[in-house]
Amino acid sequence: MRLSHARGRFAAASDAARSALTRFCTDRGGATAIEYALIASLISIMIVAGATSIGSSLKDIFTSLSGSVK
Which helix H or strand E contains 2, and what residues bound it? Predict the structure, then answer.
């Protein structure tokens, strides 16, 4: 019957999945990319926070300037 073939294909797929999972867990090559991504995201968060702070200060300065011009 074909069930024996299906069982063999399932075992092969199971072995392939287990092998891929083992390679993923033992591979350290992606760790550097993840570290760089974390550093880049932290830098971008700091830039956004700084721009927000500077934007508020500039708004206050321009508001006072426009009030003095009138």
Answer: none
What pTM value is reported for the model? 0.47
Other Cβ atoms closer than 10 A to 31: 9
- Comparing C-alpha atoms, which of 7, 26, 30 is closest to residue 18? 26
> Distance (Å, rounded) from C-alpha 30 to C-alpha 63?
49
Number of domains observed in the structure of the chain: 1
Task: Tell me how far apart the alpha carbons of residues 70 and 67 are, in angstroms, rounded to a whole number.
Answer: 6
Per the structure, the complete domain to which residue 59 belongs is given by: 3-69
Length of the chain: 70
User: What tens digit of pLDDT does each residue of 8-62 get?
Assistant: 555 677 788 888 888 877 777 777 888 999 999 999 999 999 999 899 889 989 9
What's 70's DSSP letter?
A: -
